[in-house]
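Reopening closed ticket. The problem is back. First fold of the pair:
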Amino acid sequence: NNTSQIEPILNNITTVSNMEYCFYKTTIDSTEILNRINMKNGTSLAYCFGYCKNITELNDVSISSKVSSVEGMFEGSNIARVNNFTVLCSMIDNLFKNCKKLLVVNNFSATATTSYKSLFEGCSSLVEIPLKDIPTYITDISYMYKDCTNLQSANGMVFGENLVSYEGIFEGCENLIQANNMVVKGNYYNTIFRNWKGVRYINNLLISFVGRSMNFSNMFEGCSDLMEFSFHNDSYVKEVISMDYMFKGTNISRIDITNVNLEKLISAKYLFTESNMTSITFKLPTTISSIQGLLSNCPNLEEIHDVAFEKHLSNCTDWITGSPIKVLRN
């Protein structure tokens, strides 16, 4: 608690090579002192201001390339607003982890890193995602928003093409229900959405990745609350060959994908199996050869409208088995 006595000492130090945990759990209320310290190349600021309850706002902070790490630098502090924050080191994981009062992040720049891992984990006051555009140079966003329990919208998020790690990005975000107008640029399009529990709406999804023999099988595995889904008109889906189990176990009740071209789709086995839809209007592409279990075991499905079948279907086994169908039209 004797920050006033510590600062004069640091002011008289010519150079510093390590400031890890320097002000950890102290009463310091500003990062201004960093501007008066000459840091050697490779200096670490890891957890330097961790759990400093008097730091409530960050304005015009710039961390130079001399710093090697800001991992957990502000973890657990009482920061509510971050304005104009620039960091030029490679390690920024956990930077704002467990900043439970954080509400606003404006003009955040971290161009020297490849990882946003756990960047805002545990920031339980966030309502909307502060960083919507994941740049090309970022490869790891795992647990980025984990346990942001008040997060309600991830609308407009853009996932860059080079992502490798993205597990648990929204784990524990129990109030996140909106994930509309998203853009997926990489070849991970089939796995990034898995286990997004709580999300109800994924509409206007733009898949911009261009590939051959694309596979949407099990795409929304574990998304038990998903109710609505639609593609953006420009989604690249014409190379998709399989949608097996795509919506298995979801709460899907409304779907319209007639606006996109699925000209090479071959298999839709168990596409909606075990989902909670009540009715469906669905146009099957003429290329499909198998609809085995397509609408099987849907306990609330009573009406099917305008589902067209082609003579070349080779496998229609059990396509509505276990579903209480009362109305079949056209």
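Second fold of the pair, where the issue appears:
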Amino acid sequence: QDVVVVPEEAIVTASHVGIGSQVKANALMARVQEFGLEREFADAKIRVGRAELEVRNAERGYAAEAANAPFYSDVTSAKLVQAEQRVLSAQAATKEATAELSRAKQLMESGFFSASAVDRAMARLSQEKASLEQAQAERRIAAGARAVANAGVLFDGNRLTGEVEARKRELRSARDNLEIAEHELVAVKQRMARQEIIAPFDAVVKRVEHAVGATVNRGDTLLVLEQHGAVPQVMAFLTQDEIARVQLGSVGYAYIPALDRRIDVKVIRVDRQFGFTPDAQSLPRWQELGHRDAVVRLEILDHAQASALTTGMPVQVNLPRGGPSQVQRVFARLGI
């Protein structure tokens, strides 16, 4: 048998099968509604909507700033050209003032110029050098402004204008937030899809543990299915003391009172913790007597006989204990 469990704490909202129902693989068997999931879904959709709006606003802001980038480039290029021309002009004036000072000194030595004429020439040279240094400084500023204009920023001489890089960062952040919100929405949708209980294979419903309207906890058994074509197995419920003497692979026999038939069986699984799982709560009361909280699964060696058996039949199982001549008898039932 295969146990269908509830993925999260929920309420059973619909059931499309009953005991004995034949179901096909991927058929819808039941629906559950996880507590608070509808609200989470609505909140996730709101977050995605807000993130999409932020992306659109960031895209418009970036586009507006990027549209100004050619203007910033043209302005700074023109200013750089003007600054270079002023440097050239100042260099020429400085060269001319230097030559004038040289001639004034020669004429003063020849007696044609006075010392005051030389002083005036020196003062002019100092002034032209100062103008050249100022022009060179302005050219450096213009060159820097031209460089930052490539990043969408314009320096107008007093302050920086333009926020292309800032808008680009905002756009990148908005897109990252949108991606996160979309992932969260997908995760909620996946959880909502798990609220549909789908048949994993062609099967017969053997037990329905919870009716519509019942509250179920995570891991609770909802349905028990018997797969079509599966070979029945024997499930023997033992105490912890009894299972301690069972060996994996040992061979015994099982007697089925309802058919008055004896069949050979082999131990294929020993589970001492079966009674500690939520599924143990759904076991018949007679199986709980004597604290039979351990289980042994036995394979029916003759598959031809197994095909004639019915799931749920009571069985008496005899297994070797302590030696080949000794056996122990335990209660069991047929299962898949």
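Update: turned out to be a display glitch only; the data is intact. The first helix runs from residue 37 to 110. The chain has six helices and 16 strands. Please close again.
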